[in-house]
Amino acid sequence: xxxxxxxxxxxxxxxxxxxxxxxxxxxxxxxxxxxxxxxxxxxxxxxxxxxxxxxxxxxxxxxxxxxxxxxxxxxxxxxxxxxxxxxxxxxxxxxxxxxxxxxxxxxxxxxxxxxxxxxxxxxxxxxxxxxxxxxxxxxxxxxxxxxxxxxxxxxxxxxxxxxxxxxxxxxxxxxxxxxxxxxxxxxxxxxxxxxxxxxxxxxxxxxxxxxxxxxxxxxxxxxxxxxxxxxxxxxxxxxxxxxxxxxxxxxxxxxxxxxxxxxxxxxxxxxxxxxxxxxxxxxxxxxxxxxxxxxxxxxxxxxxxxxxxxxxxxxxxxxxxxxxxxxxxxxxxxxxxxxxxxxxxxxxxxxxxxxxxxxxxxxxxxxxxxxxxxxxxxxxxxxxxxxxxxxxxxxxxxxxxxxxxxxxxxxxxxxxxxxxxxxxxxxxxxxxxxxxxxxxxxxxxxxxxxxxxxxxxxxxxxxxxxxxxxxxxxxxxxxxxxxxxxxxxxxxxxxxxxxxxxxxxxxxxxxxxxxxxxxxxxxxxxxxxxxxxxxxxxxxxxxxxxxxxxxxxxxxxxxxxxxxxxxxxxxxxxxxxxxxxxxxxxxxxxxxxxxxxxxxxxxxxxxxxxxxxxxxxxxxxxxxxxx
Length: 627
Known about the structure:
13 helices, alpha+beta, elongated, 4-stranded antiparallel β-sheet, 15% strand, disordered N terminus
């Protein structure tokens, strides 16, 4: 007789016991680890959400590391920029309030301070974060700026700013010290003043002349080179009659000389003596007074303007293209002006050949079209003036220094010499640009630094590219695009921030340039005009360091990087919330609640005890009892 049923029954109970034991083991593991399982297969149906959540947490951790590192760079950049604003304030105050007392080196205390501050600025602009130069744009492994001593004094093979400034001063003053003006007396009753060379970038430029001199004839300014004349015609002016001459200086500023006819003895400053008996003597006195006034202007304000312009030539990435235009007037032709028309029939105040309907030119990739009338947008009427064309070109290039027309010479200014490109798209436009003085196309700007083009400088008439022989002050990235875009970081799945900076940004460059000009310029301690030179320079430097409407300020750069920092702050706040929610999802999917696990263990322990008792009783059965 078989008793397999007893064995079968016993094996079922054994399996139950083994199952309960396994459950107890699993629950004990859950209780000790807090996790539902030690492998994914035991986690349940929600483990897919947990896996995705862990990936998101990993991304957030990466963003957190990025934000931490970027914040370090931004904080260092902002500290450097704040140091620059402090230097600016100190230098501006010194320039505005400087005493004209000169030391043995021909500088004031404020200028000596500025020289030291220039070195400080160089140190600030070469700030590093780790091995990254913060003001070099994408060239993070390259110092932003050259050594301060090399910038000012040059090296054994390249000229520094001091040399460029001296050359420019000599070129602007000219051999006679009159700002490249030539003064003569064509007749005993007249005086004539002219610029020495048409189209020269140097010296004083005659802008306007006005007169209340009784009986006098004033001619000009006109001609090429530009000149004006005053003829008293043998008639004495009245006491108090005045001659006024306005000049444009190399830095774009204007100065006016006023000379008043006077019968007082001694003759007051700013006046010329009337000879009551010989009018030609009065003309000679006017000639002498005008010569004295021009010489003083040239050796004070012009010298200061020359130093400022030398700073532009050396530091500024802005440059210009220059052409000398042809007028369509009958001979002798007058020089073109801003009012000269872009087309017209001879003889007329227009260029020849002029622009025709259908002509087009391209300015930095933007097309300008010429129409008969009703111009709109990027269109010009063929009857418009040269000044209208210049204004349209300036609008496209975005130059901070408007283009000019003077003495038959057109100067197209640009803030980015590397990008300027103007070309004619039609044969007529090419010919018209040639009439404006631009025979070589495309029109481009000379890359700075600019140097006086020939020797001796006092008779030079051109500026040339000096990059091969001149120290390059900025050594970081100088490619196109926003400086901010030179450093980009992703701080969230769909958010990137830009926080780059370059030492050649307009606000930084203008401050560095102004401080360098002020700290480098020196004059003769006992010179006749020394005090006037320093005074004129101080005024210009103080103005250059004062924030101007429409110009970038260092505070604008700080605002840009502050916005990037705020974006990261907002992203961090969102990520902190998301991280908490994701962790909750993971915990819900993977965690084993200790109270529930303990309760299940107790229940299983009771079931196991009962199973053991049942098994024990069944184990006591024998064949005799069964029978």
